[in-house]
Every structure is written in structure tokens, then in C-alpha cells.
Automatic annotation (TrEMBL):
PANTHER family: AMINOGLYCOSIDE PHOSPHOTRANSFERASE DOMAIN-CONTAINING PROTEIN, HYDROLASE, PUTATIVE (AFU_ORTHOLOGUE AFUA_1G12880)-RELATED. InterPro entries: ACAD10-like, ACAD10_11_N, Aminoglycoside_PTrfase, Kinase-like_dom_sf. This is Phosphotransferase family protein. CDD domains: ACAD10_11_N-like. Residues 28-252 form the Aminoglycoside phosphotransferase domain. Signal peptide: none annotated. It comes from the Bacteria.
Length: 338
């Protein structure tokens, strides 16, 4: 939890955020594991403050400055993002770097099965997500000042190396399946085909705000893992959720009668995305899915380590997290062997 002097924070916000008056309330959002996020109330206005967590952090993690930069760039496009208002230095009244953005009103859907909507509305939600993803990957990074937002070369090769390193740095238990998956990804690395775009890195339904009364995306949130990379990483990561269970600690679509409730199949979703982007269906689809499983379990391993170290934004029971990580490692290995 951040420690701060309320009067000092109020004065800082008044000096750096247009339209900010008295700091009437600061309330931490309960959800989220990575960068602590707060709702600021100032009179009739509301703002969102998103900060690096306190304590020792993994290298390159919690890059709120990158989140600020990518959303600032995408404000010039038809990809819906909140308006960026201020980025602080590391030496801030919160004790860590933070940014302030507008608060976007709307709906967040935590369950991808969308139980509170009818079939037609569910279909429109998935169509809106698909359209937004295709629009994001069609943005010219150079045109929005993000031409240097990532490194050149094989994206997946770099990402496997990065997340393997992150996993090792946060490792708390020896998992044979996780070791096997890392070896498999290296041995089955896809060649660099030159495709590159802005990628979100955590593209899923609960990282979006939908308009209050329409099934359109009002804002895409949580850009911490964004970079320049291969667009199929985002597509596969979202499609992984078709395969995760919709029970326990998972919010997936496995076992859900998708046709019966108006949701597209994984193949239909991929086909629609490819049609919108004017590309062929991807080869080596299994690699992209296995990579998505591994990256997510590496992220969760970092959450577990931070929780054990006392620095998690919203710590969960460590035994539950260990179970989830082991389950995902096993599922990734089975998928690779299918």
C-alpha cells in the first residue's frame, strides 16, 4: 500500500492536473494485481491515478510511463483510450511514479460468458472487441510517435527470453511442466515474418470499458505489457480464454455452450479478425497459444512472488496461486503435445 501525505498529494495534483480542485476522496480499486489504481474525487469531477507499487520490483515491470505514452499516442487514432492528464517522476507524493487520466464511465464485464446480456448483445460485445483489436494492429506506430516503442527482431524470440527470465527471477517452486514448456517454445520458435504492430499484451474482456448503453468499446485499459510486437500474440492471448475453464479462479469459455448463448467460436473469431486485417489465417497456431499460456503463468508467478514479499497490490492466497500456475503449465504442455 502506498504511504502518502494527503495535503501534499492534493497540492501536487492541483499544480499538475488541469481542473483538479480539492482532493475530496482517494479510493483504491479492489481489483487488479499489478499497478495499484485509485479513483480520485474532486468536487463533481473524478479522475484515475495509476502508480507503480512500492517496494523492490522486477526489472522492466510496472512501467506506468510506457502505459501513459502508448495511450497518449493512441488518442490520435480510433482505438478508444482514456485521456492522459499527467505523468509524474519517480520522486512523487505517492513515493513512486504515477499517471493521472480521465475516468471513463461505462461497464466492465468480468465474466466472458456475459451472463447478464442477451444473445444479440453478447455477439455485439465480441464483435466490438474483435474490431478494436484489428484497429489497434492497423495503427502505424510511426504516425503516432511510437516508432521506437519496441525492439527490432523476432518478437517471440525476445518475449520467450524475457518471460523465461521473469519466471526464473520470481520462481518459488520447481515445476517440471513449466521447464518443459520453456524448452518447447525455444525448440519450436516461429520464424520472424516481419509482421509488427502496437500490441496490448493483456488483451481480454475485463481490460475494457464498454459504453453504458451500447456494446461498443469506450476504453481499453491496462497497457503495462504493451510494446511493438507481433499482432498474433494479442489474438492468441485472447483466444486462449476460449480454452480456459469458466469456474473457480478462471474466467474462460471452456465448457460454455458458446453457440447457444450467441458467442463466436475461436475459429470464427480468428476468421473475422483476419478478414478485417486482410491477412491469411495464421499457421503455427499452437505455438502462439502455448506462448500465451506460458506468458500468463509467468505473470502469475510474478504476482505470487510479490504477494509472498508483501508488495502485491491485491494479494491472493499463495496456495491457490500455486495451484493455478501449475495447472496452466500442465495445460500448456498438453496443448503442445496435441
Amino acid at each position: 500500500m502506498h504511504q502518502y501525505d494527503r495535503a501534499e498529494l492534493e497540492g501536487y495534483l492541483q499544480a499538475h492536473v488541469d481542473g483538479f480542485g480539492r482532493l475530496d476522496a482517494i479510493d483504491k480499486f479492489s481489483d487488479g494485481q499489478s499497478n495499484p489504481t485509485y479513483k480520485l474525487t474532486s468536487g463533481a469531477k473524478q479522475f484515475v491515478l495509476r502508480a507503480k507499487p512500492p517496494g523492490k520490483l522486477l526489472k522492466s515491470a510496472h512501467a506506468v510511463d510506457r502505459e501513459f505514452r502508448v495511450m497518449q499516442g493512441l488518442a490520435k487514432t480510433n482505438v478508444a483510450v482514456p485521456k492522459m492528464l499527467h505523468l509524474s517522476d519517480d520522486d512523487s507524493p505517492m513515493g513512486t511514479q504515477f499517471f493521472v487520466m480521465e475516468m471513463v464511465k461505462g461497464r466492465i464485464f468480468w465474466d466472458p460468458a456475459l451472463p447478464d446480456l442477451d444473445n444479440n448483445a453478447r455477439g455485439r460485445v465480441y464483435d466490438a472487441m474483435n474490431n478494436t483489436l484489428a484497429a489497434l494492429h492497423s495503427v502505424d506506430p510511426e504516425a503516432v510517435g511510437l516508432g521506437d516503442y519496441g525492439k527490432p527482431g523476432n518478437y517471440f524470440e525476445r518475449q520467450v527470453g524475457r518471460w523465461s527470465g521473469q519466471y526464473r527471477a520470481a520462481e518459488t517452486d520447481k515445476l517440471e511442466d513449466a521447464d518443459w514448456v520453456m524448452d518447447w517454445l525455444e525448440a519450436n520458435m516461429v520464424p520472424d515474418d516481419g509482421a509488427s504492430s502496437i500490441v496490448h499484451g493483456d488483451y481480454r474482456i475485463d481490460n475494457m470499458i464498454f459504453a453504458p448503453n451500447r456494446e461498443v468499446v469506450a476504453a481499453v485499459l491496462d497497457w503495462e505489457l504493451s510494446t511493438l510486437g507481433h499482432p498474433l500474440a494479442d489474438l492468441a492471448y485472447q483466444c486462449m480464454h476460449w480454452r480456459l475453464p469458466n469456474s473457480g479462479h478462471f474466467r474462460g469459455l471452456a465448457g460454455v455452450d458458446r453457440a447457444g448463448i450467441g458467442l463466436p467460436t475461436e475459429d470464427e473469431y480468428v476468421d473475422l479478425y483476419c478478414e478485417r486485417r486482410g491477412i491469411k489465417r495464421p499457421a503455427n497456431w499452437t505455438f502462439y497459444l502455448v506462448f500465451s499460456y506460458f506468458r500468463l503463468l509467468a505473470i502469475l508467478q510474478g504476482v505470487l512472488k510479490r504477494g509472498l514479499d508483501g508488495n502485491a497490490s491485491n494479494p491472493r492466497d499463495s496456495e491457490m496461486m500455486r495451484h493455478v500456475i501449475a495447472l496452466m503449465a500442465g495445460e500448456a504442455r498438453r496443448l503442445a503435445n496435441d
